[in-house]
Every structure is written in structure tokens, then in C-alpha cells.
């Protein structure tokens, strides 16, 4: 038995209502360029809209002009999507409350997640959307996932409840120490002011 190794998210497809609602939200609120559209090749009664969330991957929406927006949250049952999270810059996150308030979009307010900050709100069809901003930048050659994996290991070693700033800083230090060569035989912390 062998795995089918994935290499990232290719796209996420959402069942939408009408075309205009989809464009107004995904491009008009979240700023995702509307790249192209074509018929849903499995259902000729639906359109298929493609948006770029900022990393070159795709968010796609099936539309039907006969479907009306239903703002009730989708059921929270096993196998159903709880929410979609999109990365934003620290600057964008700092403006999120103001910009959501300008539009009258109800939201959670900023949430401290230890290794990131988040804010939640619902899109016009009730799907929960999260805007997330990491509190760190990974060192060159490492990913956010690498830092979080190492921070988790440190958190478990220390028997802490959740990842916080100290775990992130120490994880980044470990990744640099193990991932970068040095002419020093001893790379222990020093005090040059003593």
C-alpha cells in the first residue's frame, strides 16, 4: 500500500448563489482578482468562477442565477467545512475591524491564537471566513509549517498548553542553528558585555 502524496491545495470550490454575489464578495470584499469563468463542465445550468486568493492557487465558485443567497450558517456536522482561513499581512489585519465595520459586516473582533491573530465573519451565504496573520516570519529556507512544527515540539517538551511567542522564538533559533553552517565550534549564547 502506498500514499498519494499531495503537494499543496490546488483549489477549493464553493457552491455559490448568483454570479454577482460571488464577484462582489470574493473580489469586492476580499480583493481576490476574478481570473476567468466558464460553465460548470458537470452541470450546464451552473457557471464556474475562478478567483486568485493571492498565492496563485484558486478559489472557485459554482453559480446559478436561480439560486438565492441563504445567509444561515451551514451545518456543523462531521465532514462539513467549518471555515476557510486566508492569510493577510499585519497591516491588513490592523485595518480589518475598521474595514469590516465600514461595510456593516458583523465580525468576531481580533482573536489571539498564540502564534497568529485571527478575525472571523460570514460571507453572504453563511460560510465562516477567517483572516489570519502570523506573528512571525520563518527564517530563510524554512516555511511557516516548519516553525510551527518545531514550536509544537518545544511546547510539548515544556508541557505548555498552546504555542506562544517564546515557543516561536526558540523554534526559529533551532531551525537556524540546525539549518545554517557556522565556523564556530560552539554556538551557545554568549554575553559580550560582561
UniProtKB/TrEMBL annotation:
<dbReference type="InterPro" id="IPR004360">
    <property type="entry name" value="Glyas_Fos-R_dOase_dom"/>
</dbReference>
<dbReference type="InterPro" id="IPR037523">
    <property type="entry name" value="VOC_core"/>
</dbReference>
<dbReference type="InterPro" id="IPR052537">
    <property type="entry name" value="Extradiol_RC_dioxygenase"/>
</dbReference>
<feature type="domain" description="VOC">
    <location>
        <begin position="8"/>
        <end position="134"/>
    </location>
</feature>
<protein>
    <submittedName>
        <fullName>VOC family protein</fullName>
    </submittedName>
</protein>
<dbReference type="Pfam" id="PF00903">
    <property type="entry name" value="Glyoxalase"/>
</dbReference>
<dbReference type="InterPro" id="IPR029068">
    <property type="entry name" value="Glyas_Bleomycin-R_OHBP_Dase"/>
</dbReference>
Amino acid at each position: 500500500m502506498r500514499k498519494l502524496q499531495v503537494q499543496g491545495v490546488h483549489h477549493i470550490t464553493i457552491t455559490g448563489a448568483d454570479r454577482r454575489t460571488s464577484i462582489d464578495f470574493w473580489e469586492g470584499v476580499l480583493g481576490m482578482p476574478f481570473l476567468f469563468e466558464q460553465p460548470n463542465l458537470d452541470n450546464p445550468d451552473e457557471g464556474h468562477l475562478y478567483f486568485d486568493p493571492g498565492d496563485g492557487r484558486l478559489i472557485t465558485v459554482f453559480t446559478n442565477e436561480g439560486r438565492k443567497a441563504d445567509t444561515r450558517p451551514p451545518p456543523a456536522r462531521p465532514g462539513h467545512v467549518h471555515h476557510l482561513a486566508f492569510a493577510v499581512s499585519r497591516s491588513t489585519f490592523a485595518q480589518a475591524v475598521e474595514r469590516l465595520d465600514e461595510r456593516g459586516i458583523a465580525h468576531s473582533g481580533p482573536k489571539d491564537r498564540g502564534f497568529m491573530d485571527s478575525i472571523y465573519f460570514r460571507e453572504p451565504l453563511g460560510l465562516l471566513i477567517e483572516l489570519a496573520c502570523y506573528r512571525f516570519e520563518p527564517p530563510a529556507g524554512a516555511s511557516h509549517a516548519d516553525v510551527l512544527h518545531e514550536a509544537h515540539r518545544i511546547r510539548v517538551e515544556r508541557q505548555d498548553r498552546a504555542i506562544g511567542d517564546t515557543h516561536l522564538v526558540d523554534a526559529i533559533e533551532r531551525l537556524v542553528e540546525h539549518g545554517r553552517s557556522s565556523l564556530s565550534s560552539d554556538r551557545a549564547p554568549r554575553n559580550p558585555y560582561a
